[in-house]
Task: inverse folding
């Protein structure tokens, strides 16, 4: 009968190996799709609006489109993990749907 410590080591090694294999397979698929210019290109450029959440008095929040950079273009990769310094598209879309919280700093008089 295996000891709890050896069972824990075996489970940890199996999990780490599984995640590593998944990452390598994901990397290989991205590289393979990047070699052939087809509709299955792994990289995509998205133009998404930047929404700011500005706190107001009374606990209310006002939402506005950012005037300085209203629609930045973000390049993402269609994969499970980040590759080539690009975030996965599923992560970019999830983050883009959230407004950016702003904080108001009040200067104290001297």
Result:
């Amino acid at each position: 009968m295996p000891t709890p410590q050896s069972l824990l080591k075996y489970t940890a090694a199996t999990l780490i190996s599984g995640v590593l294999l998944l990452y390598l397979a994901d990397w290989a698929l991205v590289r393979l799709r990047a070699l052939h210019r087809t509709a299955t290109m792994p990289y995509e450029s998205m133009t998404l609006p930047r929404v700011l959440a500005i706190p107001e008095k009374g606990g209310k929040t006002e939402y506005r489109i950012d005037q300085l950079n209203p629609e930045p273009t973000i390049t993402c990769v269609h994969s499970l993990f980040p590759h080539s310094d690009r975030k996965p598209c599923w992560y970019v879309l999830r983050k883009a749907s959230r407004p950016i919280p702003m904080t108001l700093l009040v200067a104290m008089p001297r």
